[in-house]
Amino acid sequence: MNHTWPISTLSDAARARITTARVAAAYGVPPLERTRMAAALSARLRLCLAKGGSWRFVLTVAKGSLRVEVSPSPGDGERPWCVTAACPEPAAGPDLDAAADDATALAEALLGADEDTALVLERLAQQEELVAFHREELHQTNQGVLALHAELDAAGRAQREAFAAEHAARREAEDARRRLTFLADASATLTASLNHEEIARLLPELLVPEYARTADVWLFDAEDERASSVPRAAAAVIAARTGRPQYAAEHPGGLPGVDDQPPSALHPGRSLLCVPLPTRSAPLGVVTLTAPGERWDPDDAVMLVELTRRAGGALDNARRFEHNRDIAETLQRALLTDLPTTPGLRLAARYLPATYGLNVGGDWYDAFRQPDGSLITVIGDVTGHGLHAAVMMSQLRTALRAYAVDGGSPGELLTRLHMFLHHLQPDLYATAVIARFQPGEPVLTWAAAGHPPPVLRGPDGRVRTLDAKPGAMLGIPLHQEIADHTVPLEPGSTLALYTDGLVERRAQGIDPGIDRLAAALGAFRAEELDADLDGSAERILEPMLSDSERDDDVCLLLCHVGHADGHAGGRPDSRPRPGS
Questions:
Q1: Do β-strands 65-72 and 55-62 pair in parallel, antiparallel, or remain unpaired?
Q2: What digits encode the pLDDT tens for the residues 511-523?
Q3: Residue 263 in contact with residue 235, Cβ under 8 Å?
Q4: pTM of model > 0.70
């Protein structure tokens, strides 16, 4: 049996599918095979309808098999499609024409369902397109998210690297600030001292243990026989000879400005840094440091070399200061006067050089007789300090004695001394007080030029300050006639002449110090001053200097007038006692 239908519409396809199903059932094709054939045929017909055009459907039953063929119109060039199924021959085969007519009717009945199915399939196709669009959109979104994650990850890495670089830069800046702060503080500590032994002691204290395990300061001209026998590392000797820093260790240090040397036999296994203490001419010594760890950081080594250089300058300045101070103090003491012996008048003097700073040399006192028999006592202070001030003090002392030979009152002597200093040293000034004691006259004549006022204690213990109008400082560019002043002088009276180093304090000024001096002088009993004027001067200095920084010279000259019975006619203190 052979039956052919054209296929061009959905109805044709439905009729062919239904006819195939009925014929396969009529010829006993197993249900599973029928289902496979119907599914394959439906798929092929759907494909043909999608392609369009005219197709031919051929159903053939022969020799126990059912064969379905779908082929294109002649001339399309496409190969035919077919599917077969085995079927046993029934006793009486079905009428294919009747089956075809019934299939036609059924196809018309199912046409509406197929059209609905086609609409559903069209909507499904649209949904598939929409799903595909959203799937593509989701894919693009995922790609964007992945790209964003990659960018965020790269930004995170860059941020972490920036944070690490910033942290490293901050750490380096903090280390540099720490080194600079230490260098500034240590330099200030070293340069604040003017004692070379103290500087040599402070340097190891500043470096150990943060920057060195041990520190040894070798000063060349400070060695005695015992110290000269101490063995020195070869690197220290090379540093002393060459004036260059040396590094001795098992491995080269590569430190900036430092020469490498083999390890030291005196300190095996340790890293040594030997830095000379430089001056303007030649090194003063060598500082030998051992590393606090295995070796030094290069920046720490640069800082240590710079600190040692500054320590060398501080040592050089301290030695120059000590040398000049010793010369000035020696000259000052050599020029201090041997106090004269005068009946009815006792003198006691104290001179204390400054113990802080180069402030020795400006203060002076003197006592000598004039041709008429009167006794001149003078105390003064030259501005400036050091050797130059001591030399100028000696010239003023000599000039004053020369002027006093010609006579003249204290005011006249100060006036002439003012003119002398103004012409001799226009940029140098001085202050002074001159008091004259006239034998047999109970009157004290005095004059002052810019100096703290004398303090006079009466025999009854009352103390007054002789603060009549003084003259200006000696040597200022001003013409002046310094006036004399007189005050009654009773037996048992004591006159105190002094310099500002005794009474002046930076935080209080000079007036409270003068009041303290007056109180200290008034606290003595008359018998104490009569019996021991020298000890009384010593007892005045102790409370007066208890709060002093000793940054200026101190002079004190006590003049005690004896009683009429001659009780105070003992021997005067002929030389000032050195203070501590």
A1: antiparallel
A2: 999 999 999 999 9
A3: no
A4: no
